[in-house]
Amino acid sequence: MKNWAANLTYSSARTERPRNLAELTGVVAGEPRVRALGSRHSFCDVADTTGVHVQLDLLDDGRPALEVDPETGVASVRAGLRYGEVAADLHAEGRALAAMASLPHISVAGAVATGTHGSGDGTRSLAGDVVGVDLMTATGELLTLRRGDADFPGSVVALGALGVVTRVELATVPTFDVRQDVFTGLPWQALFENLDAVMGSAYSVSVFTSWYEPDVRMVWCKSRVSTGSAGGAASTTSGPAADLLTRLGARPAVGPMHPLPDVAAVACTEQGGVPGPWFERLPHFRMDFTPSLGEELQSEYLLPRTAGPDAVRAVRALGDRIGPLLLTSEIRTIAGDDQWLSTTPEDSLAFHFTWKQDWPAVRAALPELEAALLPLGARPHWGKLFTVPVADLPGLYPRFGDFAELAGRLDPTGKFRGGYVAELLAG
Ligand SMILES: Cc1cc2nc3c(=O)[nH]c(=O)nc-3n(C[C@H](O)[C@H](O)[C@H](O)COP(=O)(O)OP(=O)(O)OC[C@H]3O[C@@H](n4cnc5c(N)ncnc54)[C@H](O)[C@@H]3O)c2cc1C
């Protein structure tokens, strides 16, 4: 079996898709090596095992797929569901997630296990909005960990190393509507000098570039609008994002745009300022379309927000080197959270790279990118491709020792270790 991008063939002997908790317990307790596999969207071997993979997409744990607590708004969801499968039902209950990743097809448990995030100065990673997990540990017992429990900060961004998460509790907010506007041609100098203002010009902002073009290719602005605007006609481009970006020299896009140049935007969520519910605007791609054939590779580095202007200049200086290898690249922002293995422990800037699927060329370029970004405090995304030695990763996380102790306590035989996570926890 291969991952989504087909750049990795898993080493597992077989894959089990248990239909109930008893079947899951049988696999987890009975096998010496097990690893949960989500929707296979990671580009590296973070989810790999030489033992048995378990996928939870068919798992019925005896409770409704989605339960919303009317008092707290906390949504309890089956962990194997994809975010896009949860979102519409949540909206129907009058609730929303504060953020979504670019793709709604990614599983909830798999996304939060690697610190997956969207964009927005005020929105945390998807893991940062988790308030509880049900975890099947090595013996097959179910353990519930909630915000406030001593081990909780180790239990969400956990790389599959603690066990199999069967349910996830998500903090929600009242549902809201969003309009998406795209701007093109922002001059580089304007971005250098106004990075924080550009990234803060809407609820969620993404800057797309290939770093060697004469100007910044696109800025996607997702702005909250008053609830109930959905279903209305396209509004004229106006508001804080448009005011700022046009003043800085950008222009409203003349039609719908795809993140990749010269690709039709049919798979993208609606643009052009048409208001719609949060889950149909915050992801870049629509749930009912396959966004691409997967012929790409991804890397991503997350840095403290304070390093942002230096980091943008440093990557731009590498534009001629990395630009020809890129399909596109994206700058995003994320608010900090308190997970021990969080790549965004403080307000952060993310540099995402979608590469052509040429691993030898990308692998040769990554050390140069990492040499520019690591001194500025960068951490590689746990689910993407990087060349930082695995042995150096613990040094990037002050609470790594606490995480390793928790993993050793819950999984003393290392049943849930595989791929590079085995090496990470070996030291
Ligand atoms: C097209 C595309 C777009 C993407 N967009 C974004 C984005 O916008 N933002 C971003 O940050 N990342 C993004 N990613 C990266 C992606 O979100 C992460 O790699 C994520 O971890 C993939 O989740 P998955 O369900 O596919 O998990 P997998 O890749 O299958 O597994 C990832 C990890 O989760 C663990 N895991 C899975 N299920 C469970 C479970 N039930 N219990 C315990 N552990 C589990 C696995 O063991 C493994 O360690 C994107 C990837 C692709 C291919």
From TrEMBL:
Listed InterPro entries: ALO_C, FAD-bd_PCMH, FAD-bd_PCMH-like_sf, FAD-bd_PCMH_sub1, FAD-bd_PCMH_sub2, FAD_lactone_oxidase-like, Oxid_FAD_bind_N, Vanillyl_alc_oxidase_C-sub2
Keywords: Oxidoreductase
Domain FAD-binding PCMH-type: 8-175
Entry-linked Pfam families: ALO, FAD_binding_4
Protein name: Alditol oxidase
Organism: Promicromonospora umidemergens
Lineage: Bacteria, Bacillati, Actinomycetota, Actinomycetes, Micrococcales
Gene name in the database record: aldO
